[in-house]
């Protein structure tokens, strides 16, 4: 991850030309740094674990059939630059996300911030760490709790319901448009909760594991575990199970 950041991401940061940024979809871009970073990461991960499938965000965009590999016995999942819109605009936050899944369940995840060199990582059943330091999720201690809720991918009716039925119970803050930043904010006491509508594996596999291993809770709104091989919407992440339960109870009434 540090190699990809040094060779592909930071050299292009705040130096991208217009022809190095392409629109992938509405409100979604890809840069030359994304493709270069993914190539470096995929090559290195293939050497580490040759038997594992590799599903990168940009490769899957070019060939959606790769998504069928997410449920393989072993699968590397790569987001070469998470928060690309921020990156392309020359501002933080952005990061690299890598997860290793086993038959659809995340068993390890890494979240790297190239600007600060912060590395968050977790292995299933072994706790969560920032660098070498084990970390335990903590709430903000604020009343009402602080919630970062993404409405970008919610349909209009659901967006309105979230605004009228959920928002009044929380102090709402802007989302960073970067899961590589949002999940650490949940663990580090910056935010208490997040709701995600779109739950693509490269955006969430590493972060969900990191929150859960830190003692918080991240799961589907119905309480079921997040799996990388399921194409479903809706995910809650919280600094504690109690905060998660409170928000989930409100969400089922929408």
Automatic annotation (TrEMBL):
Protein family membership: Belongs to the inositol monophosphatase superfamily.
Protein name as annotated: Inositol monophosphatase family protein
């Amino acid at each position: 991850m540090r190699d990809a950041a040094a060779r592909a991401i930071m050299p292009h940061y705040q130096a991208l030309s217009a022809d190095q940024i392409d629109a992938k979809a509405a409100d979604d871009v890809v840069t030359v740094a994304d493709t270069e970073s993914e190539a470096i990461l995929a090559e290195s991960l293939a050497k580490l674990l040759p038997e594992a499938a590799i599903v990168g965000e940009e490769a899957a965009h070019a060939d959606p059939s790769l998504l069928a590999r997410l449920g393989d016995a072993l699968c590397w999942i790569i987001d070469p630059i998470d928060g690309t819109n921020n990156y392309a605009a020359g501002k933080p936050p952005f990061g690299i996300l890598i997860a290793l899944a086993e038959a659809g369940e995340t068993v390890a995840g890494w979240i790297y911030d190239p600007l600060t060199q912060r590395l968050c990582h977790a292995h299933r059943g072994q706790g969560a760490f920032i660098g070498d330091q084990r970390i335990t999720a903590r709430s903000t201690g604020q009343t009402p709790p602080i919630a970062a809720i993404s409405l970008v991918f919610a349909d209009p009716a659901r967006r309105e319901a979230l605004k009228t039925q959920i928002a009044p119970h929380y102090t709402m803050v802007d989302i960073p448009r970067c899961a590589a930043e949002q999940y650490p904010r949940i663990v580090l006491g910056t935010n208490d909760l997040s709701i995600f509508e779109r739950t693509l594996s490269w955006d969430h596999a590493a972060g969900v594991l990191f929150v859960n291993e830190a003692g918080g809770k991240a799961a589907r709104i119905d309480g079921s575990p997040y799996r990388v091989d399921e194409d479903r919407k809706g995910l809650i992440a919280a600094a504690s199970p109690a905060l998660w339960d409170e928000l989930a109870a409100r969400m089922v009434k929408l």
